[in-house]
Structure formats: structure tokens, C-alpha cells
Amino acid sequence: MSFQFRFEKILTMKEKETESAFHEMNVIKTIKETAEQQLLQLVEKKDSYIQDYQTMMRNSLRVTDIQEREQYIHFLNKQIDRARKKVNELTQEFHLKNNLLLAKNQEEKIWSTWREKSLEEYTEKINREEQNQLDEMAVLRYFHKNY
After folding, report:
1. Is 87:39 a contact under the CB 8 Å cutoff?
2. Which long-range contacts (CB under 8 A, 24 or more apart) does 29-33 make?
3. What is the 3-state secondary structure (H, E, C) of 111-143?
4. d(Cα 31, Cα 92) in Å, to the nearest integer?
5. Residues near 105 by Cβ (< 8 Å), separated by ≥ 6?
6. Does an H or E element contain 52, and which?
7. What does pLDDT average to over the chain?
8. Do 18 and 41 contact (CB within 8 A), yes or no?
9. What mean pLDDT is predicted for residues 55-67?
10. Of 18, 89, 109, 146, which cross-links 104 as Cys (Cβ 3.0–4.6 Å)?
């Protein structure tokens, strides 16, 4: 007779939920890192463009060139704002997924602990039964020898 945890299917389901939550968190983490890199690139692009613009301003520029450059800086600012919003949203989602993962890990640990305790109880029960059988056999031998 082998040990069978009566809630093994639930434990398996909890393990799969934990793996799924871990995977989801990693996906969000990867997307977030990509968005952060894009934001950094935009900021660097804007800084570089502003430096070039300031260098060109030392020379004479036409009004239309200045307007075009100002519009492009405005465009870059809008892109940076959008990228920051996206990073903030992804950060919030990452924290939610991380909290979900922690909760799933805790649930799985509770079920695993329950399984371990059930296994210990089963092992103790089997050991007691074996010991009772050995005691019974010893008593029978004693009576057969003495009577």
C-alpha cells in the first residue's frame, strides 16, 4: 500500500498556477525592461538633439528651421511622456503580478506542507502497524516455545 495524498490534484493545480504566475511576471518584466530601454533612448535622443540645436543656434538660423526644431523637440517630449506612462503602468502591473506570485507561492507551500504532514502521519501509521505485527509475532513465538 503506497501513500496517496487525497488532495494531490489540488496541489498539482496550485503548482501549475504558481508556474503560470511566475511566467506572467517574467513576461511583464521583459516588456517593462524593453519599455525602459526605449524611454532611455528617447531621452538620450532628445538630449543629443538639444545639444545639436544649441550649437546651431550660435550660428544664424532661419525662423522656419527654429520652428521645425521646436516642433520636433515637442514631438520628442510627447513620446517621452507616453513612454514614461507606459513604464509606470508596466511597473504597476509587474508589482501586481509579483504580489500574485507571492500569494500563489504561499498557497502552494500550505498545500505542500499539508501533503508532507499527511505523509508523516501515513508513515507513522504504517510503522505502528508493522510494530504491532512484530509484537504479535513475538508473543506467538513466546507462547509456542513455552507451551
Report:
1. yes
2. 29/94, 31/90, 32/87, 32/90, 32/91, 32/93, 32/94
3. HHHHHHHHHHHHHHHHHHHHHHHHHHHHHHHHH
4. 13
5. 18
6. helix 8-58
7. 93
8. no
9. 83
10. 18
Compute the C-alpha angle 22/24/30, nearest 5°: 105
Q: How far is CA 114 from CA 96, 104, 111, 122, 132, in A?
A: 27, 15, 5, 12, 27
Residue 129 phi/psi, 5-degree rounding, is: -65, -45
Residue entry with cell 510503522: 127
Share of the chain above pLDDT 70, in %: 99
Residues 97-128: pLDDT tens digits? 999 999 999 999 999 999 999 999 999 999 99
pLDDT band at 62 (very low <50, low <70, confident <90, very high): confident
- Closest of 41, 36, 44 to residue 88, by C-alpha: 36
Q: Which residue do the cell numbers 550660428 mark? A: 59
Quote the radius of gyration of the chain (alpha carbons, Å): 34
The label of the residue with cell 513466546 reads 142
* Spatial CA neighbour of 105 closest among 23, 15, 4: 15
Reduced to 3 states, what is the DSSP secondary structure of residue 64?
helix
Cα(69)–Cα(33) distance, integer angstroms: 30
Q: Kindly state the cell numbers that stand for 97.
A: 503580478
